[in-house]
């Protein structure tokens, strides 16, 4: 397979997160394994000359299929015990975006979001109408109940017993990916089941442009995770982009926007960011956030605040 | 009635818009009459010592009841001939926000949005679930079809005949209000029926924080109108707030953010803005946008690009 690291001169980078929150120790290994698999899958698309959008969607696909994460199969449940999912994609070249909110019974909500971007004159479709639109055009449906896992049911029972549906720190495990491709184009993709015990019809931050994600080739690309309502009120993804436009690095912009969210709203969140030069930003003010990125032959990853591991990847075809 | 123009030292201001778009000449008188009535109704709340949020909601109420505008009664119809409405409120003191998307059959979607802010742990509820939540807590329901007007039906027929559902310039007539009260607090309220012939389940910019509106006591407050998908992609309301944070006046920030939207996406929009000092910004890059504001004993209003009328208001009780 030929390397496609040419064009705009920026390196190929595929950066993912597997959700900010209070991840229990026993959940750490599967999350770290999952984010690395996702970053690798997305990077393979980039290395084959694929577009940033295809790569980011491929990475999210891997995590939607993995019940270690709260997206697709393994999504948390609303107060009625149902899966209602949110997802967003954004293309940095055109600012085109597509999203779905509270969509039921599709295997890959990120595919539905992408379909909205490419085939609808709108950005955001919600509910059963979003599902009908997507499935009629080939997005894979899931039988009713097929996305519900015993773990999600247990989490809902705990929420009901605690009487706490606000879920500030539940290890929500929203997933997201950002990418820069060989032509220097950027993309963002984010997918989630929301919060355990949420009200029926609740749309979180994930499918909202500027909240759950953003991509602008002239600046950078972001995917966020954490307390959704706080991310909405601060327009977290757009705030990071604005700080980068003012000259901050991807890392400093991400950290500063999160600090501001914490200061004003006293809740937690995290975000992953790429500049249009391929510089990486990873930050969270929650207890943990799983993340990983592949850049060149290095796989970087972590989940605790000061953790930053690097592995050299031995490519089979080299 | 005592004047409440004290506290933070900023003047009381109630500023409204009645939608950006290609308003036909015959629609101008009713729109100008409607925005002035709305501005006056909201201002009365401020002058009685009421909160900015109460005042902004009162102004939107007037326009939701007036079928000269595309909100509440008189909302445009989706492709199936149904009313599905969007609304948002935001409170500048706390950054609290509440919104509803594609809500059917309530007289005042803005009341439902406010209820979400005050009584739900979420920001955005959509669809039938939003209606059930609101009506169960006292928001006035409307019988099925009661919000549908002959004019909205005619507009849908035209859209179908043209085969153009993207509706870049339909005089959409979204309504919005921003206010500053006697304690210097800010609020934003926006309500719409969306675009004529939109897909079922389409959520526009109006209920999205940072798109349809924003309010932050440390900066200012905004309500937007126009091509919804473009407003979403540029986070128009938040972009205006960011420019004001950087030192631009309400007017300059509003104009610059709209110019940027037009340059990047080649669509039209408008916005109204108040700074936390009570300075007014009104701008649009569409053919027309009806607007009005009451400040002291002056009523300002207009609808064409260079139109700015002022009337002295004779208060009955003075």
Structure description:
The structure is a homodimer of 318-residue chains. The first copy, chain A, is built from eight helices and 14 strands. Chain A has a single domain (13-312), classed as Glutamine Phosphoribosylpyrophosphate, subunit 1, domain 1, CATH 3.60.20. With 318 residues, chain A is α+β, with helices and mostly antiparallel strands. In chain A, helix 1 runs antiparallel to helix 2, helix 2 packs antiparallel against helix 3 (109-119) and helix 3 packs across helix 4 (127-136). A nine-stranded mixed β-sheet of chain A has the order 4-3-2-6-5-1-12-13-14. A four-stranded antiparallel β-sheet of chain A has the order 8-9-10-11. In chain A, a hairpin with a 4-residue loop joins strand 10 and strand 11. Strand 4 of chain A pairs antiparallel with strand 7 (202-203) of chain B.
Task: Provide a concise account of the structure shown.
The structure is a homodimer. Chain A contains eight helices and 14 strands. With about 325 residues, chain A is α+β, with helices and mostly antiparallel strands.
């Amino acid at each position: 397979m030929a390397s496609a690291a040419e064009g705009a001169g920026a390196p190929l980078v595929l950066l993912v997160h597997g959700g900010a929150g209070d991840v229990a120790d026993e959940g750490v290994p599967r999350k770290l394994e999952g984010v690395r698999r996702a970053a690798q899958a997305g990077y393979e698309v980039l290395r084959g000359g694929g577009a940033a959008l295809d790569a980011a969607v491929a990475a999210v696909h891997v995590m939607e299929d993995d019940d270690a994460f709260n997206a697709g199969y393994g999504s948390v449940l609303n107060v009625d015990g149902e899966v209602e999912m949110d997802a967003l994609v954004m293309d940095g070249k055109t600012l085109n975006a597509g999203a779905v909110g509270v969509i039921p019974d599709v295997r890959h909500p990120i595919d539905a979001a992408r379909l909205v971007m490419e085939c609808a004159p709108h950005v955001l479709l919600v509910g059963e109408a979003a599902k009908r639109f997507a499935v009629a055009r080939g997005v894979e449906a899931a039988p009713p109940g097929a996305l519900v896992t015993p773990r999600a049911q247990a989490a809902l029972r705990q929420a009901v017993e605690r009487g706490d549906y606000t879920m500030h720190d539940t290890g929500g495990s929203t997933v997201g990916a950002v990418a820069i491709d060989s032509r220097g184009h950027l993309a963002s993709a984010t997918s989630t089941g929301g919060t355990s015990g949420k009200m029926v019809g609740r749309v979180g931050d994930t499918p909202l442009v500027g909240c759950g994600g953003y991509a602008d080739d002239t600046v950078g690309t972001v995917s966020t995770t954490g307390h959704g309502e706080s991310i909405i009120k601060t327009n977290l993804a757009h705030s990071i982009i604005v700080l980068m436009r003012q000259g901050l690095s991807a890392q400093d912009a991400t950290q500063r926007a999160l600090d501001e969210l914490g200061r004003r709203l006293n809740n937690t969140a995290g975000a992953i960011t790429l500049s249009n030069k391929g510089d990486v930003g990873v930050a969270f003010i929650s207890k943990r956030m799983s993340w990983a990125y592949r850049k060149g032959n290095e796989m970087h990853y972590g989940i605790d605040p000061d953790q930053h591991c690097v592995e050299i990847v031995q490519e089979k075809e080299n």
